[in-house]
Amino acid sequence: MAKKKKQTPKEPRKKINFSLSRQQKILLGSFLFLLGLALIFSFISYFFTWQADQSNLGILGERDLPAENWLNKFGANVGNFFIYDGFGVSSFIIAFLVTLTGVYFFFDYVKSQLVKFWFWGILLMIWISIFFGFFGEKTTLLSGIIGFETNDLLQDYLGLLGAILFMTFVMVVYLVVRLKLTPEKVIAALKSSKKNIAEEFATPVSETETKATVTEPVSTKKDISEKPVPKTEEEPISKPIVMEESVEEKAVLEKIILKSDVEGDVEMEVEQAAEEEVLEENFSEKLVKDYGEFDPRLELSKYKFPTIELLRDHTVGNGGITIDQEELEENKNNIVDTLNNYKIGIANIKATVGPTVTLYEIVPDAGVRISKIKNLEDDIALSLSALGIRIIAPIPGRGTIGIEVPNKNARVVSMRSVIASPKFQNAEMELPIAFGKTISNETFVVDLAKMPHMLMAGATGQGKSVGLNAVLTSLLYKKHPAEVKFVLVDPKKVELTLFNKIERHFLAKLPDNEEAIITDTTKVINTLNSLCIEMDTRYDLLKDAMVRNIKEYNTKFKNRKLNPNEGHHFLPYIVLVIDEFADLIMTAGKEVETPIARLAQLARAIGIHLIVATQRPSVNVITGIIKANFPARIAFRVTSKIDSRTILDNSGADQLIGRGDMLYTQGNDLTRIQCAFVDTPEVADITEYIGAQKAYSDAYLLPEYSGEEGGTNLDINIDDRDKMFREAAEVLVIAQQGSASLLQRKLKLGYNRAGRIIDQLEAAGIVGPFEGSKARQVLVPTIDALNQLLENEMPTS
Ligand SMILES: Nc1ncnc2c1ncn2[C@@H]1O[C@H](COP(=O)(O)OP(=O)(O)OP(=O)(O)O)[C@@H](O)[C@H]1O
């Protein structure tokens, strides 16, 4: 979310922090300048007219009685206020400061200097007015009442001498801190002035004359015009080189020209770099001040998030959550009886009714071993005669044993209800996903950015596609098109087609692809490699910006600390969704596995997240390297305990009841969730709603990746062919079926090797190209034709 960050609290408070437009600055500048002039004129005039006007001050409010001050009643009053009642003659400083502030605003100079001027100016004003207080009451016009009274106060406490010493100390502070005066500089200055006087009376100066000149770094334009310019080149530069002071000047040089006492010696000029001036306002802060933070949503600023009305309430007619007392009682009795049969006494039992299952939490009698209950899992399930019983012994962190029993009437959890839940709506997450409801009826929301990748498995028809739609819908409800992009891989070609409508809002694709949703294996390989390039580019950007992750990078970019001219740009999250992974791995093997493993290992920090779904969670699909990098796993119902272990490292998924009943793990704990149900027409409505709005000119373009010719290794060298190449070719020609799994079975090959051989067969023109879930076409009709073809081949090397 593009929330504006507050300025850091460390920022000096005195800093003027207006963010005015240029026009406003000019207006304010001219007002202050003229007000300053008015004050100056009033003050000057006040010295001549104060006696005449002061006796009338009381009635100055009356319009008819004019005052003598040049600025009439206004002048007389401000003069009296500042000079008589205030600071005496030093009040001119305030008038001068107001004028100067006007000039700064008018010309839009860097204002950090102004604060210094005001601080030291006011200090000097007070000092002068107190100083004049030493001259007594008669000089009120010099000291002002404040100066006189303060002086009086000082003298009352410190005595005259003490007051003088105190005032001297304050002056020393001013000279040292403000003017950076040091004894050496004073001595050098004195010497130089003595020398100058001497020069006036002396004969023309010789080149080797001894002298040291200190230039004063601070001067004004007027100084330049007044200083005589050396007329001839031979003439020694006896006058200091005066530098014009500019507030934005980065370094002021103090020059000390040292001249030796010894005649004929060479003159040396020592250049002493003064402290570099610190600009309190940094460039990016100024940019933020002038233009505000960068808003990635600006291009589609009118974008409207999908409304909740687009989702339907599937619980209607389903009756919402109903607690069937009879059912509860029956199950309880069953559990108690079963456990009693095995001599397990129960101290306490509690039921939590969820949408699809009810959790019975049991506290066994003291001394009962938990392993005993766990071993009875199957027996308990049998006696409860229900599918989907899961025993959790013990429930982590609770010290009780849980038995999950499916409800007779499972309730559908609508996507609408989870999207509308405060938990999702208020989720301060980068990529919030509302999966559904837990057993205790709480909406389950997780951050995909933290997962950072997700593996999803489940036998066909158990709710995988609905689960993927729930993930995508959650993101569509929370994220602006500028913030997240999807790369959708759908070998089944039907599941994700609806998302085509939001191509120019939310999808990312390769530049030369017409369709954003990828259905072809070759294109999947190219896209995955392109994502790897995108990942490397993003890492370079992060390195350049000296940040550790995409969130810090984007914050820095929004604060205008990264220059777009150097290639920096706002980075949207990229979510890669692969709907049928088994299919891809079977056909492309390593070519898919390698980039996926690489992305899964490295992409978390730069905002690329993977969601991989598969029907067949067997170990040759979900290989060790892939599994190790997908800590978040979701299992819908699977057919065997082995599949459950492959996906979750735990049994349980085989005990689920289907229809969106799922187990989620992100480490150790398993959470049972009823996946939210979002129907195809709802997804159609949402994509339609988004698709009808103003879009970007194209989908988010991924970096180009040309890959090898045709995407697969079509130019595989004949000499590099697998040893089993010929046998494999024969198997396929005989069967007239170009499938890798056939090769695996007949030749007992690993699927990677089988995939590679298929590629080689394609390169040799024996089988046709990949055709999605169908087997490849075999292009050679008979074994004879095959022999002929292979004999005619010439080795390329
Ligand atoms: N969360 C859910 N709540 C209620 N019913 C669901 C839920 N998820 C799925 N179903 C039901 O199960 C059916 C099949 O779901 P889905 O299409 O998601 O299965 P699948 O696992 O993707 O199957 P396949 O792998 O064959 O595509 C849906 O049409 C719906 O009736």
Topology:
Elements: H1 22-54, H2 72-87, H3 91-107, H4 112-132, H5 140-178, H6 183-201, E1 212-214, H7 221-226, E2 253-258, E3 268-273, H8 283-291, H9 325-341, E4 346-353, E5 357-364, H10 370-375, H11 377-384, E6 390-392, E7 401-406, H12 415-419, H13 422-425, E8 432-438, E9 443-447, E10 454-457, H14 464-478, E11 484-489, H15 503-506, E12 508-509, H16 521-545, H17 550-558, E13 573-578, H18 581-588, H19 590-602, E14 608-614, H20 624-628, E15 632-635, H21 641-648, E16 661-665, E17 670-675, H22 680-691, E18 700-701, H23 725-735, H24 740-747, H25 751-763, H26 783-792
Parallel strand pairs: 10-14, 10-15, 11-13, 12-18, 13-14
Antiparallel strand pairs: 1-2, 2-3, 4-5, 5-7, 6-7, 8-9, 8-17, 15-16, 16-17
Helix pairs in contact: 1-2, 1-3, 2-5, 3-4, 4-5, 9-11, 16-19, 18-25, 23-24, 24-25
The unique ligands bound to this protein are: adenosine-5'-triphosphate
Strand content: 5-15%
CATH class of the largest domain: Alpha Beta
CATH architecture field of the largest domain: 3-Layer(aba) Sandwich
Helix/sheet category: alpha/beta
How far is the first residue's CA from the last residue's CA? 58 Å
Provide a count of the helices: 26
CATH superfamily name of the largest domain?
Answer: P-loop containing nucleotide triphosphate hydrolases
The averaged pLDDT comes out at 79
User: What coarse outline follows from CA principal-axis ratios?
Assistant: elongated
